[in-house]
Amino acid sequence: MSEWTVPGYREIRELGVGGSGRVVLATYESTGAFVAIKYLSERLRNDPEFLAGFQREARLMVELQDAHIVKLYEYVQSPYGDAAIVMELVDGVPLRRILAEHGTTSPEAALVVLKGSLLGLSTAHAQGVVHRDYKPENVLIQADGTSKLADFGVAALSGEQGVPSGTPSYMAPEQWSSNPASPATDVYAATCVFFECLTGRKPYRADHLAGMRHAHQHAPIPTMEVPSSVRALVGRGMAKNPMDRPPTARAFVADLEAAAVAAYGSDWEERGRRHLAELATLLALLFPLARPASAPEVGTSLARTVLSDRLGHFAPRFAIGGSLVAAVVIAVLVASNGATPVSEGTTLRPPAQSESPEPVVPTVEPTEESTEPTEPTGETVTDPTDEATDPPVAQPPVTDPTTTPTVTPTVTATATVTPAPLKVTGLAVSSFDGQSASLRVRTSANRPVSLRVVFAEGPDTDHLVARPAQVIPLAGATTYTPVVQDAFTAPACGKTVYRRITIATTPKAGPVSKTTPIKGPACPPPAVQSVAIASWDGTTAGVEVKTDGPGPAKVTAVFARDGKPAQTKSTNISGKTTYPLSLKGDLGEVACEKVAVFSVTVTTEPAAANGPQTKQVRVPGPQCAPPTVKIASWNGRTASVQVTSGSTAPVKLTVSIVQHLRYGERDLEFKDAQSATLEGDTQYTKEFSASFKQPQCGFTDERVITVSASPGGATATSTSRIVGPACPDPETEESPSQGTDGPIL
């Protein structure tokens, strides 16, 4: 029987042969579009666990649309168990060939390779697809310096016990402990390749697998061998603990861009891409269509992966009616109780190439031998899958209107059995770390189930914004534990966001949700660009601080009175780049009719570019209250006067004492005036005395004292009244003419 070929394609020539199968250059008969077809080896086709896992991966891969990932158009199985994948053809050479030819790349070119790969990995990770075997052989550099990531899927089997899947030189420490591949292991491998681009050698070398395991798990990260500008990137990406690596490939891109701009300027990417283009162009004769018709046979090595025959991939922009199309469908075998398949899978084909004046130059390159001289020969061990390996369930065939209709063989039923309705008996979110989630689905029968996953994110649990739904087909088992994730952007430093995953199935079960808060990293201290005192009235300072980032800073205000610091206040700022502040100080009261100089000096930590800022203002005291006067005592002879003043300014007292004397039939009035000036204090007691003549008897003496204060004019008055004794009878006493005036007071 002739060798099976994928229907609808015309094979041009064989491009390579390896342990995982053979690769051919072909064109789609309806359009002439170039593609690469990989026919899986008999060993892989006869491995039901591999096929089940690969079919699950393929269902997700055909949905991926990313400029940094080689497109998978379709996966086809024949009724006889043959299997093949049809892929995009990329016009370029593997990064491995560039490194073999030139040794190293410039730092900018290495950064461009790493960024492109991280972007492709981020898209794949968001759909739950892990590369598992990232290495230079799987990075394809095109003539314009851009790159595409190939061969997502399952690493090939090596046949050695205890050897995990992947390529030893790029395997993360946790993979050596038989932990499954994850987004974190892809980031580790990409950083190892980044290191190799910079230095021309792999991060660790050993004479045997045990030594390689020990190096990846325990040897120091060789950051000192790379330029200082990227040491932090290498240190994070190759961290021994996966929790110390960037949380996502997308987050690592942000770190990469910041380091690249800081070290090589804003045009680093253009320079790096230009350098890659130059290196690739020097190998133009190795581009697929420039290769000779006969392809050398490619051996296998410990580094071989499932899809690792080095396809030279070409990326024509296929178009129909001017719109880009990526029509992809998976066709799988239809099996009945393990019997011979009865239907051949047919799928949509790659759409026609758009008419373009530019020539299409697809490329395919056979897989190179592993360059690890110390690694044993043989293919890489694949992680076992926990999924059941029942025969694949058929997907409805989809045919392009321009292709030959699918022929559906007739099946003779031997019995009619009505199966019980399929039920989802268990649905749970086992764990959710805000980026990826482990799910568990149980069904009542081994029949297809559709799992719908929706991620959401927001500033709080009441304002979550849903992201596009992911629909994942499940088949081939009754218990599934898929891991799903979304390419969330890391929260801004100092911020907390909330993320939720909601899952449901068809047949209906759920929805089931889980929500978790995600904190952004601590913000680094910013550079304080300026500090300004916009206003200062002696009590409140209006201050504006500008920084170049939202990190924490400290603002301190020193309040002084007449040049002497009296009070210090500080406040912490973060979360913004412009801060209007109101800083209040208490410098006390200013004495009446006095003037004080109040000042404020504002500083920041880190120090502001324009240094400390100071502003002062003259603050007058209020007008002093006028003095008050009080006559504490007055006995007609001596008066005690109390004065209270609002200031120590001079106070003038004017005293008037008037004597009203009634003697016999006579009314007499005598006056006395005095004054005094008081100053230097605010409380005074002053005594005033007066002396008047007074008869010995028969009189009434009323003495009035009035005290006035200036300024203000406050007055006080007090009266003293004395009634003299009656005079004796003139016949018995001396005549009045013999009496004398009273004593002088």
UniProtKB/TrEMBL annotation:
Keyword Nucleotide-binding: yes
Alphabetic keyword roster: ATP-binding, Kinase, Nucleotide-binding, Serine/threonine-protein kinase, Transferase
Protein kinase domain location: 9-261
GO molecular function, one term: protein serine/threonine kinase activity
Source organism (scientific name): Acrocarpospora macrocephala
Residues annotated to bind ATP: K38
Lineage, highest ranks first: Bacteria, Bacillati, Actinomycetota, Actinomycetes, Streptosporangiales
Polar residues: compositionally biased ranges: 735-745
Family matches, as PROSITE patterns: PROTEIN_KINASE_ATP, PROTEIN_KINASE_DOM, PROTEIN_KINASE_ST
Protein name, UniProt field: non-specific serine/threonine protein kinase
Keyword hit for Protein biosynthesis: no
